[in-house]
Amino acid sequence: MSVLSYSFYSLILLLLLFAISIKVRGLRSLVSLIAVGLVMYVGLKFNLKNVLIISMANITLLIGALLLNVHRNLFGLSNIDIKNRGALISVPYLVVIGVISFSQCSVCYSLILLWVFLWYYFKGKCRNINLMCIVFLYIPTVVLVGIYKTPLALSYAIVTHWFQGEIESINEENVKRHSDDRGSVGAALDNIPEYAWSWKGDGN
């Protein structure tokens, strides 16, 4: 089978995996792992440098999503983690900047300054995951497709989707904590005796 045929069938499989990832949230990690393995297999089989570079980006972001998942489930989330949740949108950019700098030009490492700006920008703008933040999250995938000119770079979007799920879980934890806080305040107010509310009137 030719490289073109392998790439075509791999792309079809990637699109199918992406659809599964969107449909079943619990399978995002497994789907991401399969996508990374598939792209790496094609790159190694045909010795395609651009595909292997995409695999490098995939593996790096996959490790990031895995570490985030382990940290959230085993150690829990601190207030600082929740406060900085919006800045996580910048992580796929950092991975792409690192991969491009390694494979294309050493001067590109200066783009780290751009990432620092994005980190601060997303930290303030993406505390809640809205449509704008989701669009920004997938721009690095478009950059990879454009630079390395292979549809297999869409695999980065699958791993990004898992990463998005981890950010959404942190956002849900933030909503839950605020809800618990409001519930605690409401319960405390309900436990105040009625005569305590009328102290002012009794004093007059």
Structural key phrases:
204 residues; globular; mainly alpha
Account of the 3D structure:
With 204 residues, this protein is an all-alpha fold. 79% of the residues lie in helices and 0% in strands. About 3% of the residues have low confidence. α1 packs parallel to α8 and α2 packs antiparallel against α8. The termini are far apart. The chain contains ten helices and no strands.
Helix and strand arrangement:
Elements: H1 3-23, H2 28-46, H3 49-75, H4 79-83, H5 91-103, H6 112-125, H7 131-148, H8 155-190, H9 194-197, H10 199-203
Helix pairs in contact: 1-2, 1-8, 2-3, 2-8, 3-5, 3-8, 7-8
Short description:
By secondary structure, the chain is mainly α.
- Work out the helix count: 10
Rounded mean pLDDT score: 85
User: Can you count the beta strands?
Assistant: 0
The biggest sheet amounts to: none
Write down the overall geometry.
globular
